[in-house]
Task: inverse folding
């Protein structure tokens, strides 16, 4: 008896939950309404089955519960009924599959006139590339990746010279233009997932994958990595900003081209020598701002919080001036020299309680100075001891 | 050759009776005990995960590294070391010889070896908790390149131990599998045709065939990843820049691993599900005193599901970057496999219709199975339909689906099966009150855990996330929901301790069961002694005259007719497979 | 692989699940009834051959898929591979003769041929190791060349199965009986040897002659 009631209650509660809960798909911000529609069709058909079968079982176990003097019927088979059930089920399955495949046929064929953007993932940050005036993306390979060429573009490919590089977690897109997204990874599997867009795809090192969509809503949308890529997977964050064409063009024009990034990082002078023109001209506030931007673009913020929250790496809040203990028991105060050593060679000394996870990213002296200034600006003092290993 | 007249001259010492036993019943219990113990470790790991998800940041010792290690070990333990080992090594070993009327498995020594090799694989797996770097945190799917690269916990030692453990497990599973398959084909007693075997045997039989064919794929991918890790080969490793360093690998394909893994991984879920289907058919039938409806269709459905399960694997790879045109094929085959599966659900329900339903604990679990399997199977239709899968892949929708269909419904069958056959194994009944409490908490609790998760998945919350800080689209209510889910998980976990206690307590204090407390027709209940002695049947093997589902046969004096009751008792299976085998 | 072949004597009172021949006895046998004509060991071996076939097929699929990569360089088969093949063929021939002789009751001859079959298989393994040495001397090591990696991997897997067969063979080789059980065990050894030869021939063909072009042609990719 109780089980019959339980089943009915479960059905009622589930249906109520469905209609009352606040959690459903985010408002659609792309052209893939058909995916949402197919989801709805699937929900309706499966929901119907769910309700009917559960209520039926609830009814049956109540109606045919054991009562003294009652025997079960004997009906071991009924081929006609079984045939009908097979046919009806097959029809229901086809009703689900057909719309799904129709939508998929659209999904695998991007429009001819789609603009192109490349997303490059690495543990644990995003970077982007747009074709320049020539409209073509240059070739690339993991073998070309260097400090000055983080996206691994082929320096000898003329088509790559005018490509626009965005090393940073935020990318802009123009409204209502179809875009084919090319996906690359420098290291492990990632997945470029923006829930309101619905469309997405894994990023596989050694190959280029793709998907397409058309942004239909202006706004700022979270990028989430959706394929486990190591310990920083949950913190591999970014934003897609959708805006009108004019704003997008303005933003794009402000981003460096590949040629420019290669020129900027001319061979650095010997370590610790006179400051380059950029830093000497920069006042204190500018340096901090530069440092903040660098922390974003190089992905430091993936692991180092600035508000004291524990993360994969020590928090920067209050770090400067504190004394840190290393895994081998020694300790040192956090000053410019400390930061420089840690950033340039993260695995030489491990702060106690943290794993050897920090990538060795190429950083110039100027950048080091900026980052130091930024970290110092986040508060000083030994009070804030970063909590171990989170 | 013949059976020795004196049944007491079986294995003599403690060691040969309980440790190095070649008796399938002892081996089955050994498998069950180890599987349950390692399963409790898996439950504990899941609770640790839920501590973090429900109360993020509140537990210092659960950092991101440890979290991913918990996730990985929980998954691998539950799928392989608990469910597969328990259904095949536990239920398979115990039930097959008894249900087909054999004295034991056909290769008893190999059978004993298979348990000890399984035990070794468990030791190797658990040892990864104690090595530098700890166990692997690559997710139970162990995808390269990350599984063997810095940035993933356990990339140094943990992954090696995991892969070695899996290889050892596969050896054990093969040894056991050879036994189950050959015993079903060769050792059935007189009159026991294939189409008179209970569905529990059919389910385990087909699952074993799948295991024998599909585990090699895991072996291949595991060995190749091991070589990539230890010898620096590039089977799966392309050219990469990892942590700022150019690596020596090149040319390998991460997708190759995924194809191999899922070629194993999808049949694996049916290796778990098919025995559950078979067992639940028997539970429903016995406890509603009614023949399973459509026995032959049920057998065909098991076979069809088994065959189809080998051609659906890439529905786990719709967004992997594989050739997109594969999506059409695999979505189609995946939705086709829903048809025989649905037929089975209908047949369970029709069996109950006009039955004589006793609300025993096994029946409660069987009914709960139907309900939770329905929802788990239906959500599979979302994920199998490629374009609906695209936004849902790798979200909590997937987690909810596979828990319902692998973690909840088959586990409910495990419990139902243990409550059902415990009296045969031990001669005592499990305590009914504890059983009812265990049932209700587990059923309602697991529903409360996994039903809401579907909605968090549709919202877009990805799986395998240590934390969800400051996402504009994730409302605070979702975090609150996560907290309630965690609380439910702790309660359900605690309830399992009741079950374990019941198993131990009832061994000494359970009510004496007699030989056939459920008044069941299948052969395992007709042994001359309970628990069955070594050799199962006494001096004479049973002769079978009918199928296993002669319940409530019209005009029969009782509401069941045992399979080996004399032919005059009636209850023969529906034509036309009442067949040549009837004759002595 | 079955109770009969592993233990030469059984603890008192242990029954046999299967029966030797067609005799029935008063209900004591009956593990087999009317339909089956093959002993369980035979079915078990067929099943294991199925598993191994699945294993090697999957390795070959992986081999073919990995070939489709720009860094693929073919590795020439070392001549020792031909020696290995000859040894394995001889071993199979010896096993075949052993089976035939055993079935005709000529047990002395059968046992001698059986031992030759074992020696042949052991010599095969030695020859394979020699082939590895030859490749190594040419600086083809597992890590630096995917074709090399597969050569080592596939021959290692096959070699392990041969070694496993030799373990089973050891039990049969010490069997001094001449009854139907012994005859059957010799037959099973032979069958497994022939199976390993067939697998080796396929592997040899793939390692020596399968090219990326052929793979692309079969798969329809270009």
Result:
């Amino acid at each position: 008896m109780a089980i019959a009631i339980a089943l009915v209650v479960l059905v009622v509660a589930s249906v109520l939950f469905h209609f009352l809960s606040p959690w459903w798909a985010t408002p659609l911000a792309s052209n893939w309404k058909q995916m949402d529609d197919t989801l709805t069709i699937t929900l309706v058909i499966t929901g119907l089955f769910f309700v009917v079968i559960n209520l039926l079982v609830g009814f049956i176990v109540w109606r045919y519960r054991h009562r003294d003097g009652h025997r079960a019927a004997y009906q071991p088979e009924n081929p006609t009924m079984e045939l009908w059930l097979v046919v009806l089920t097959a029809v229901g399955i086809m009703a689900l599959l057909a719309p799904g495949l129709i939508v998929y046929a659209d999904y695998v064929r991007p429009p001819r006139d789609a603009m192109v953007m490349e997303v490059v993932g690495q543990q644990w940050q995003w970077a982007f590339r747009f074709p320049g005036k020539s409209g073509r993306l240059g070739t690339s390979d993991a073998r070309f990746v260097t400090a000055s060429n983080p996206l691994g573009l082929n320096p000898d490919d003329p088509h790559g010279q005018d490509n626009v590089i965005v090393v940073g977690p935020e990318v802009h897109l123009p409204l209502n233009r179809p875009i084919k997204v090319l996906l690359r990874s420098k290291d492990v599997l990632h997945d470029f997932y923006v829930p309101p867009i619905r469309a997405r795809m894994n990023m596989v090192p050694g190959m280029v994958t793709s998907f397409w969509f058309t942004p239909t809503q202006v706004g700022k949308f979270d990028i989430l990595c959706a394929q486990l890529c190591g310990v920083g997977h949950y913190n591999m964050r970014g934003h897609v900003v959708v805006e009108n064409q004019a704003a997008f063009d303005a933003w794009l024009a402000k981003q460096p081209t590949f040629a420019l990034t290669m020129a900027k990082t001319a061979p650095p002078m010997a370590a610790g020598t006179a400051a380059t023109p950029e830093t000497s001209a920069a006042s204190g506030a500018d340096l901090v701002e530069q440092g903040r931007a660098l922390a974003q673009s190089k992905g430091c913020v993936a692991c180092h919080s600035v508000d004291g929250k524990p993360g994969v790496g020590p928090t920067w809040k209050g770090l400067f001036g504190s004394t840190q203990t290393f895994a081998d028991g020694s300790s040192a105060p956090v000053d410019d020299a400390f930061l420089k050593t840690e950033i340039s060679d993260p695995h030489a000394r491990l702060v106690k309680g943290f794993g050897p996870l920090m990538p060795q990213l190429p950083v110039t002296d100027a950048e080091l100075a900026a980052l130091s200034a930024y970290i110092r600006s986040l508060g000083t003092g030994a009070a804030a001891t970063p909590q171990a290993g989170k | 050759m013949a059976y020795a007249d004196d049944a007491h001259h079986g294995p003599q010492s403690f060691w040969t009776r309980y440790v190095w036993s070649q008796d399938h019943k002892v081996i089955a219990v050994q498998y069950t005990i180890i599987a349950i113990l390692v399963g409790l470790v898996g439950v504990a790991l899941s609770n640790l995960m839920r501590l973090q998800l429900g109360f993020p940041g509140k537990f210092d010792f659960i950092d991101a590294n440890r979290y991913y290690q918990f996730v990985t070990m929980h998954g691998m333990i539950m799928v392989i070391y608990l469910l597969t080992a328990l259904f095949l090594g536990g239920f398979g070993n115990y039930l097959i010889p008894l249900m087909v009327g054999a004295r034991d498995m056909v290769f008893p020594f190999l059978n004993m070896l298979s348990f000890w090799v399984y035990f070794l694989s468990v030791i190797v797996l658990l040892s990864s908790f104690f090595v530098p770097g700890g166990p692997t945190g690559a997710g139970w799917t162990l995808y390269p390149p990350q599984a063997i690269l810095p940035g993933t916990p356990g990339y140094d030692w943990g992954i090696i131990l995991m892969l070695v453990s899996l290889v050892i497990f596969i050896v054990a599973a093969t040894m056991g599998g050879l036994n189950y398959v050959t015993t079903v084909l060769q050792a059935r007693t007189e009159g026991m045709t294939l189409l008179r075997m209970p569905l529990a045997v059919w389910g385990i039989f087909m699952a074993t065939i799948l295991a024998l064919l599909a585990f090699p794929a895991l072996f291949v991918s595991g060995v190749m990843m091991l070589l990539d890790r230890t010898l620096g080969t590039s089977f799966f490793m392309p050219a990469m820049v990892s942590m700022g360093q150019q690596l020596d690998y090149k040319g390998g394909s991460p997708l190759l691993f995924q194809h191999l893994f899922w070629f194993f991984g999808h049949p694996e879920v049916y290796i778990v599900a098919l025995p559950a289907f078979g067992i639940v058919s028997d539970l429903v039938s016995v406890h509603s005193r009614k023949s399973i409806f459509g026995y032959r269709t049920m057998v065909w459905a098991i076979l069809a599901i088994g065959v189809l399960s080998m051609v659906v694997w890439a529905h786990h790879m719709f967004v992997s970057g594989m050739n997109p045109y594969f999506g059409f094929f695999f979505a189609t085959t995946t939705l086709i496999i829903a048809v025989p599966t649905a037929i089975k659900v209908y047949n369970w329900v029709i069996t109950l219709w006009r039955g004589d339903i006793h609300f025993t604990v096994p029946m409660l679990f069987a009914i709960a199975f139907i309900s939770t399997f329905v929802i788990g199977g239906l959500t599979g239709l979302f994920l199998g339909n490629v374009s609906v899968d695209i936004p849902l892949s790798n979200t909590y929708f997937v987690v909810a689906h596979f828990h319902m269909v692998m973690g909840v419904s088959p586990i409910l069958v495990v419990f139902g099966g243990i409550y059902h056959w415990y009296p045969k194994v031990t001669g005592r009944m499990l305590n009914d009150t504890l059983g009812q409490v265990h049932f209700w908490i587990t059923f309602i609790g697991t529903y409360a855990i996994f039903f809401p998760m579907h909605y968090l998945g549709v919202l877009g919350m990805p799986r395998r996330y240590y934390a969800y800080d400051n996402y504009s689209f994730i409302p605070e209510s979702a975090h609150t929901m996560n907290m309630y889910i965690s609380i439910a998980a702790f309660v359900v976990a605690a309830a399992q301790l009741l079950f374990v206690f019941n198993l131990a307590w009832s061994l000494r204090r359970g009510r004496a069961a007699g030989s056939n407390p459920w008044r069941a027709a299948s052969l395992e209940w007709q042994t001359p002694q309970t628990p069955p002695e070594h050799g199962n049947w006494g001096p004479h093997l049973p002769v079978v005259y009918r199928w296993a589902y002669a319940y409530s046969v019209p005009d029969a004096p009782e509401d069941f007719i045992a399979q080996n009751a004399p032919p005059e008792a009636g209850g023969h299976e529906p034509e036309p497979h009442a067949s040549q085998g009837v004759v002595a | 692989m079955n109770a009969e072949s592993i233990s030469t004597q059984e603890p008192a009172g242990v029954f046999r699940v299967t029966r030797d021949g067609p005799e029935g006895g008063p209900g004591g046998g009956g593990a087999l009834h009317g339909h089956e004509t093959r002993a369980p060991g035979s079915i078990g071996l067929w099943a294991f051959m199925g598993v191994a076939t699945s294993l090697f097929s999957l390795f070959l699929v992986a081999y073919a898929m990995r070939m489709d990569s720009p860094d693929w360089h073919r590795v020439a088969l070392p001549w020792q591979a031909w020696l290995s093949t000859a040894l394995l063929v001889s071993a199979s021939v010896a096993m075949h003769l052993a089976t035939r002789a055993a079935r005709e009751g000529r047990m002395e001859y059968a046992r001698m041929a059986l031992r030759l079959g074992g020696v042949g298989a052991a010599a095969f393994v030695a020859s394979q190791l020699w082939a590895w040495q030859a490749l190594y001397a040419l600086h083809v090591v597992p890590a630096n060349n995917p074709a090399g990696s597969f050569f080592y991997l596939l021959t290692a897997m096959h070699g392990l199965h041969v070694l496993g067969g030799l373990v089973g063979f050891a039990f049969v080789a010490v069997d001094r009986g001449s009854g139907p059980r012994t005859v059957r065990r010799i037959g099973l050894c032979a069958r497994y040897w022939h199976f390993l030869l067939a697998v080796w021939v396929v592997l040899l063909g793939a390692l020596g002659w399968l090219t990326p072009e052929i793979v692309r042609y079969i798969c329809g990719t270009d």
Q: What stands out?
A: Chain B touches chain C through 70 residues (CB under 8 Å). Confidence is low (pLDDT under 50) at residues 1-9, 577-584 of chain B. The longest strand of chain B covers residues 241-242. The beta strands of chain B are 241-242, 245-246.
